[in-house]
Design brief:
The protein is of the alpha+beta class. Helices cover 50% and strands 10% of the residues. The chain has one domain (26-219): 3-Layer(aba) Sandwich (Glutaredoxin). Strands 1-5-4-2-3 form a 5-stranded mixed beta sheet, sandwiched between helices. The longest helix has 18 residues, at 4-21. The radius of gyration is 20 Å and the shape is globular.
Length: 221
């Protein structure tokens, strides 16, 4: 008779072998859903709908998204859409993030580079996450206090922001993000959409590898 310790070892080896060779199998309706109203003009793109006051968005941006986005196939763009309908200062947040994303773009920073330390968008996003979720800041003094947190994080003056937010490109970007509301109604945020058509059901994501595999499969649809 095989000793128990060797039986356990043999079982472990078998399990490792099984998982090493297993492939992911995904099902529409369980792992992803097809949007009834696709996001226009975002083919070959991974969109992330998020809000500064969403704890799960914060967790994903600390532990998941920075690991997934750099591994996206070459040529696939990553775009964040801030949800202005969530959070007391969602409107101000969307305006500010749009200003920063366009400034990043002017500096050659977009897509995967938005997770780098040079990104103004990242600096402000993490400053808001940290203030709201870790320090429990609620900016009771009003929108000026809210904006100051982001402005201080990126070294921007209020006058510079007030001028930049009136740029037609900023307004167009904020308007484009409004589609995030209908997406968020399906399962909340964060909401990851592939090619503007397929919403990943994050509750069924089990690992970074499974999420990447699902994204790659949906990119081919």
């Amino acid at each position: 008779m095989m000793p128990r310790i060797f039986k356990s070892a043999a079982t472990s080896i078998a399990l490792v072998s099984l998982f090493a060779t297993a492939s992911f199998a995904f099902t529409e309706g369980t792992d992803y859903v097809k949007l009834g109203k696709p996001i226009p003009n975002v083919s070959n793109t991974l969109v992330k709908v998020f809000s500064y006051d969403c704890p799960f968005c914060y967790k994903y941006d600390k532990q998941v998204t920075p690991k997934v986005v750099p591994k996206l196939p070459a040529g696939v763009e990553f775009r964040p859409f801030h949800l202005k309908t969530k959070g007391k200062y969602g409107v101000q947040g969307s305006e500010f993030f749009a200003v920063l994303l366009l400034k990043d773009q002017q500096n050659g920073i977009k897509g995967k580079d938005l997770f780098g330390d040079k990104s103004l968008f990242k600096k402000a996003k993490m400053a808001y996450y940290n203030a709201y979720h870790d320090k429990k800041e609620r900016w009771d003094a009003g929108p000026d206090a809210y904006l100051k947190t982001g402005l201080d994080a990126v070294g921007m003056s209020r006058a510079e922001f007030d001028k930049a937010k009136n740029d037609p490109k900023v307004k167009a970007l904020v308007k484009e993000w409004e589609v995030g509301y209908d997406i968020a109604k399906i399962q909340g945020v964060p909401g990851f959409v592939v090619n503007g058509k397929y919403l990943i059901m994050t509750k069924n994501i089990t690992s970074v590898d499974s999420m990447l595999a699902l994204i790659n499969e949906l990119l081919k649809k």
